[in-house]
Structure formats: C-alpha cells, structure tokens
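User: My instructor asked us to take a sequence, write out its structure as tokens, and then describe one feature of it. I'm not sure where to start. Here is the sequence I was given:
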Amino acid sequence: MKKAMLSQPMAGKTEAEIAAARQRAVQALEAQGYEVVNTLFTDEWYSRESMEARGVVQIPLCFLAKSLENMSLCHAAYFCKGWEKARGCRIEHEAAVAYGLTILYEE
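Assistant: Let's start with the prediction itself. The structure tokens for your sequence are:
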C-alpha cells in the first residue's frame, strides 16, 4: 500500500480545528488508497517540558525534523488548505517536490 503524510498548518488554530482538518485529510487520502503516516507528534517525548529537558532550543524545528524523517516513508504528501502561509508546510512542500513525492492538495 502506498503511504502519504499530511502537511497541515497549526499555528493560531484550536485543537478542534486541527483535528477536524486532519480527519478530512485522512478520509481523502484513505479514499485514494493511501495509508497515512503520522506527522502529529503528541506523545510525552514531544511535550515542551521533555524537549526542553533534552536541550531542544528550537521546538518547531524539532517537529519539522521529525516530520521530514517520516516523509522518507512516503510516496505522497497531502497539503491542507493554508499550507502556503505556514513556514513548516512550505519547507515540507519544497522537500516533497525536490524528492519527487506525489503532491496532493486539499480541495
């Protein structure tokens, strides 16, 4: 089965808005036959306290690095609406284009 990741803007959004956009994206990808690779890191390892204790200074960059690592498992990247306004999403888009992933956009 082909795998895809989500690139989703989160800054300024509520948890409910993030979850709703994510659910729509997952449904769209699964309808196209993709298995969705996790790019929402919510376990204790990625809590602010845990990252600071490990010496992480640039927390958003830590999340981006993990997302790019998971992108290596994927055939496609799905970009949710508003991706072009989010720094991390733009970087993920550049990487997906540069490495030849199939690029999908939320309609």
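For the description part of your assignment, you could build on this observation: The beta strands are 3-7, 35-37, 76-79, 102-105. Try explaining in your own words what that tells you about the chain.
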